Structure formats: C-alpha cells, structure tokens
C-alpha cells in the first residue's frame, strides 16, 4: 500500500474502506501462518516421542550420529516412512500417553541433537506443556490449502442473524500457463500471417494530413461550443486543454501549437472584465439562487483552467530552456523551440489583453526575464508586449507592477541586461503628471449653484429645470466610474520614483555600461519631473560624463539634452550658467555627416529647440550667430532630410533673433576675423562672416533644400513670392526631418520622369566630322607610303633646341 503524499489531507471513506480490507487479509494470512508453524512443531515433538518409545522398548543403544556424515535426503525419506507406519496418537489411552511422557523425559539425552549448543533444561521447559498445546490444537489437521471465503450480506430470520459466505473460485495457475503457452504460438502465427504494412512517404503524408484535419475539427467544435455558451460548457475547456498532451508523434507539435493559440483566444473572449476573488466561508454557506450558483461554478472553473493553462505554458518554456528530452519522446528537442515561441507569444497577448484579470503578476514574472533572452525573436516579442501595455495603461496599476519587476531584475543581474529592457520605460504614459496643486486647479470638481444663488438669478421654471439637470449630471458621473485623479497621481509618482532610482543607480555604478545611452534618453524625457533637490548633483554628473571623453557622440548629445530639459522646467529658478553645455554641442556638430551619424541630427534639432528657441532670453547674439553659421556649414555634408531640418531650424532662429540677418551681408561688423576652428561660440567672431553656404545649397539636387536655401537668402520672409508654402512653414524642424527621410532608400519626393526626345535622323560615320577634316583625312589616306629611315637622334636634337 502506497503512503499518502499529503499527510495533512484527510483520507476519503473509500480509502479507509480499502485500507481496512487489506488489513483483514493480512491478519488472516498471519493467522494461517501461525497455525502451520504450530502444526510443524507438534509433528516434530511427536516424532521425537515415537523414537524415544521405540528405543526404550528395544533397549538397544542408538549410536551417536556425526553431523558431518548425515545424509539429509535419506533421513527425510526414513522419517516419512516412520510417520506412515506410526499410529496416530488419537487412538491411544490416557495411561499410554502418560507412559510415553515419562519415557520421553528420561530419554532426553538420546533425543538430543549433539550439533545443537542449547542446554538440556531449555528443551525440558519447552516440552513441559506439549500435551496442553496438543489438546488446544484442532483434531483434524489441515492438509489442503484453506479456501478463501467471500463474506456476503447476512440474512435475518426469527432465530437471529445468519451470516452468509461463499467460496472464492480458485484459478488453476498450471492451467493458465498451459493456455498461455497455447495462445503464444497462435499469436505468433497471426503476426507472421499479417505483417505490418510499411507506408511510403506519400502515404505517410496523406495519413498525417487526415489525422491533422480530424484534430482541427475537434478543436473547432470544442471552441465553438464554449463560445456559444461559456457558462454551460466550461467543462469542455478541460477537454481542450488535455489536447496539449497529444501523444501521436506525427501531429503532436502542430496540434499542441493549435491548442495553445485556440485557448489563448478563448480566454481573451470569455474572460469577464473584473478580477474573480475566492469565496469566503460565509458566502459558501449561504443559500443562493440557481443562476448565482451557475455563475459561481463558471468563475471557479474558468480560474482553475486559466491557472492550469499558464502552468502548461510555463512548463513548455522551462523544457526549452533546460533542453531535456522527456521519457515519452513524442516531441523532439528541435521542436521545443517552436513550442516555446508560441507559448511566449500567447503569454504576451494575455499580458496586454487581460491586465485586470487573475494571475497577471505571474505573467509579468514570466515575461520580464524573457526580455533579456538570448533569442532575439523572443526578446523582441516580450519588449513589444511591455511597450504596448505601457501605452494603453491609463491608470498605471499594471505599469507599476511591470516596472517593479524590471527594476529588481536589472539590479539582480548587476546591470548586465539588454538596453531594450530600459527602452520600454520611454513608452510610459506619465506626461500627465504635474505638481499636485496645479492638477487640483486644473481638475476642479464642478460646483453646483446654491439655493440662494438660484433664487436670485433664476425663475421658478428655470430652477426646476436646473435641479433636474444637476441630478442627471450626478448620475452620469457615478455611472462613468472613472478613477480619481489622486489615485492616478499616486500610482504615477510611485512608478517614476522606481524609474529614477534605476537610472541613478546606473549613472552612479555602471557609467561604462551599454545601458547609459538609454538612461540618458530616459532622463531627457522625464527630466522635467525630477525633484529640484537633485538638479545640482545631476548636472555635475552629466558634465563629468561629457568631460571624461568615454561617451560616443549620441550619448554626449543625450547628456546635453537632459541638462537643458532640467533647466527648462523647474530649473528656471536655479542660477546656473550652462555655457559648458553650449560649447560641447557646438563642438559636437562637426562629428555628424551623411554616413552612420546622420540619425544623430534628430537629437541635435531637439537640443537646439530647447537651448536656443525656448531660452531666447538667456542666449546672446554672438552665440546665436555662431550656431547659425556652423549649422549652414553642416547642411553641406549631410543627407537631404538632415539639410531640410537644419535649414528649417536656421529659419526659426532668424525669426527669433532678427539681428542675425547681418550674416546675409558680406560686410564685416566690428573688429576681428571669423575663426571657424574655434570651439567657443562666444569668441569665434561669427559677425564677420557671411552665409555663402546658402548659394551652394541653392543648386542642390533636392527641390525642398533648394526652396529653403532661396527662402533664407531672401531673408526668410513670411509674405511675398519668396515665402514658404504652409506645408513647409507650419511644420517643425523635427517633423520635416522625419517627413523627408530616405530610410527606404528612395528619393523623397520622387524624381519626375523626363520625356526622352527621339531624333528623326541618326547621324552615322562621317556626318559627325567637319568637311575640311574629312578632305584632309582622304588626302592622307590616298598618298602611298614611302619607306624612310627612322632617325630618332635627329628628332631628339630638334626637341632639345
């Protein structure tokens, strides 16, 4: 009998009944064994008594036997013959028995086995109660094996209860063996007569297709039945889930994939829009209606099947990671990856579709480590699912759960993770967060008129209509059930705290990590939400990172962008001069070109917007002139979309700083010479140069670049023939950069096809040459060549003269 796995679990009545039956059988066997052992002892004693009587009557000494020379086979035969010849003791009188007892005691030495080391008195004590034991043993000795009895229900009559039993039929083992031996050759003959037909490859594929079609029809039937009436057919979910253990090796992998996807779509459709909680003891004990009971059974079944389904998906992913082949050997190791990818895809879909339902945190714990997986496909799927969840999460509850797990995972891996994990933070919807008092001012609850105000301003009929209107508004507000702004604000604040803690840890401990660009990009996005207390320390860290020289151009641009985002928000109150960041951006501009660094122009355009346009009051004219000149120079050696963005930025700067139009004149202003190599925008004397680059850009092959260059040469007018069209003037520089991108490796806008002019006459041969040249060629060709001696020295002398 196997021991119970869970000892705390109370066994059922059926188990108790089974256990008691086994115990009774064991007791019966023990009792039979004891009876047989007592009979053997009794026979041995009787044999010794007969031998003693025989020796005493014959009065002949029995020679002592050497135990080494004993022949056990002969001795056993002799003992059996003596037993047959001896009379049973039941036919003897009491006097004869007493005599035999006395003789047996006297002949203790003769009956003793010399090979035994036991003392004599032990056997005397042992044989003292032989007769008593003999009297207690039943007279009829059991020669045949005791038959097992089956206890039936008893019968009750006038005399009392009569127990009923029946003999259990005994199966003859010898006969069974003979039958089996007879059957074996017959089976062997059948196998020989009907060998297994070997299928060709084409037949095997047809058979597989047929099996697969049957499984598909079965899956479709179960799914349609569940969708038609989920509450009644919830038990069919279990039947469908059992197909995840398909054992046919021909279709096992395909069927399992189909079942995974089908169950995922079913759960997305039939899951309610609320979280199902377990019932309390009081709720279970109360009487409820049939409809409520049916709904409870549906919810319990749905939650349990959903849990088992998630466990199956988790096990598939673990099997793929561990790469261990199972005993069933139905699915090969190569197929594990395909199954795991389908399982991950289903988990990602459930993560996005059911953020409110049970076990959502368990799905998050499964998905987050897979975001850092070695497989690029799995990692991208998980990262995209998390980004999608962040974008659609309005309240912030699900986003907070994911951020907590990601932050703990990054810290546990000592910041050795993929940068894509932290790039998902950029999709958080936390731009709605503002200072608490500002949000209260913006979202003030609508104040209803008091009775006195109504009486003063409204008539009786108007008051009646106003009352009905206010009542309707209250009902609509309750029915809307929108989350309060305070709860949303609290969740977003907690989420941002975790994000900033992760960013600051990486800035402090892992400055050379590949995560640094992503951290700087995230800080640039959320910098306006950082507490003012951290501004000084953060700016010092950013400046030290730039001065270290270990950063790439992209990372340094993100540092500059972060610094100015900080200063443009709550940092206005701080008295900080960011001249060093202006200098660094001015120096970094010439690192960009039409090659791989062309994508960095977008970040430059964002930095210029924050640094020059939004901080126009803190920017000097010299600085603005230097940046306009360097940007025009940069526009000559970047791709067309970058040139368009740069020229659009220059247009905005010329409108923001009207005095910069002196760059369109070739006369110098003030003393000094322009120093283009100097990295200090304040001291490069940009007022003593002109924007000659615009004349080169006026002959650019891109039509939009040409149009913008002509517009800037004319002084960037807002009206007139040189003014820009609304489609160009109303867009920002970053939008124009994206609109005219050449990422698809095509001209944007496309080049107009030119109509080729066909020539009526095709010129051939002599028609290409002049008439005089033709005559000269004919005259030289007609002359006969005369052999003349070649004298190279003569020609050499004439050339030297």
Please give a structural write-up.
This protein has 801 residues and is mostly helical. The chain has helices at residues 13-58, 72-85, 94-106, 108-111, 120-126, 130-136, 173-193, 201-228, 236-242, 252-270, 281-285, 290-322, 333-353, 360-370, 376-392, 397-412, 419-423, 436-442, 451-457, 460-480, 485-509, 516-526, 535-548, 553-568, 579-588, 600-613, 621-634, 640-656, 693-697, 703-713, 726-729, 733-739, 771-782, 792-800; strands spanning 149-156, 161-167. A hairpin with a 4-residue loop joins strand 1 and strand 2. It is elongated, with a radius of gyration of 52 Å.
List the topology elements.
Elements (H helix, E strand, L loop, with lengths): L12 H46 L13 H14 L8 H13 L1 H4 L8 H7 L3 H7 L12 E8 L4 E7 L5 H21 L7 H28 L7 H7 L9 H19 L10 H5 L4 H33 L10 H21 L6 H11 L5 H17 L4 H16 L6 H5 L12 H7 L8 H7 L2 H21 L4 H25 L6 H11 L8 H14 L4 H16 L10 H10 L11 H14 L7 H14 L5 H17 L36 H5 L5 H11 L12 H4 L3 H7 L31 H12 L9 H9 L1
Antiparallel strand pairs: 1-2
Helix pairs in contact: 1-3, 8-9, 8-10, 10-13, 12-13, 13-14, 13-15, 14-16, 16-21, 21-22, 22-24, 23-24, 24-25, 24-26, 26-28, 27-28, 28-30, 28-32
